[in-house]
Write a structure and sequence with these properties.
Number of helices: 10
Structural class: alpha+beta
Number of domains: 3
CATH topology of the largest domain: Heat Shock Protein 90
Strand content: 15-25%
Length: about 425
Amino acid sequence: MLIDTEKTSLDPDSILFKAVLDEVGAYVYVKDSHGRYLYVNEVTRQLFQQPLESIIGHDDSDFFSLQQLSDLRKNDRRVLLYGETIDNEEVNTIKATGQTKIYRSVKKPIFNKQGMIIGLMGISTDITDIHQLKDALQQHQIQLERKNHSLEDEIYSEKTKAENKDKKHAEDMAQKNQELEIANKILINHSNNLQQAIAKKTQELEQSHRARVTLERQHAISQERQRFMRDLHDGMGGYLMTALSYTETTSGKDSTLHKILKLAVSDLRIVINSMEKDDEELMFMLAMFRQRIESMLNIQGIELVWQVEDEPSLASSDPSHSLQILRIVQEAVNNIAKHAQATQARLTLKKNAIVIADNGTGHTQVWTKGHGINNMRQRAQQINAVLDIDTTPSGVSVTLSWPLAMTSSVSVNDYP
């Protein structure tokens, strides 16, 4: 695991991630290169029965019995000195309670940007119950074997005596056999129940481990997305704002260049916002698009009719879906402005569809050739949407529709 040691403040994602770790049913902790605690989640604080400030900066000798401390430190040294990732069982006695527990511990080294080990991260799960169940099963199996041997000896002895006794004694023996069979079935049933309990507990442990791995992956993706947005805002955004400011302050400014730069800044804001929002992002982006495009169409003598039959809804929380839909709508409106010779452009919003129509000449060649239409179809395919283009002499209607639940398997019945 790579840690940025120059980062000194917690962003909202880090706070959320710590809150999530507090709800994980396992002991999560971080130690420095000397074995001192830098972070523990709520479950670990409850185990030590200490507040966070009494744990940070202390090592394991303050919380565990010295009897098992040697093995615990040996495992930590393997991680801190040799960069190993270990996954094994540890037996520890908690000083605060005197209880001895068995844990399955996964420990990984933490590296800084220079590749040096600066600490370790650990996740430990209490598997004491599993060991106790295994021990109980073993004891029951031993008891079952002893009972069987004892009953077999008893049956043999009774059968020998029965040879010299009357019919009533034989009936008693039959009763004994029946009782033996019932007892044997009960023991076998109990043994099967114990095995099922062990299998269930093992499955729950594996599911918990997979859930923790998923949380770590999601946190890494979120951090990378935040870094990309900052770089995009501070880099390209800064250059565009500098150029825009220059056109506003320079005498004899180029009004066309000024408008283009304003559109570029607005488009960059849409891209950045699309990476931060999800459910409400599409309506937000379309509203900004309307504000930008309406004045441009009016200059060309094209009236924009904006109708909202229902607020568009995307089942997917991927922000890129909203941006793909906006790009398709942009290309359709640009074609109307450039080629339709229309006096009206109508944009209708539905729950799972957007319709862009005009009253122009049909501009058929534009919708059958060129990179623009290919790009629109590719964008629609990437989000499992359908792009339908209807050209007539009295105008063109472009319908983009998507299923209410966007999945890789799409049914025709999901579209309007």
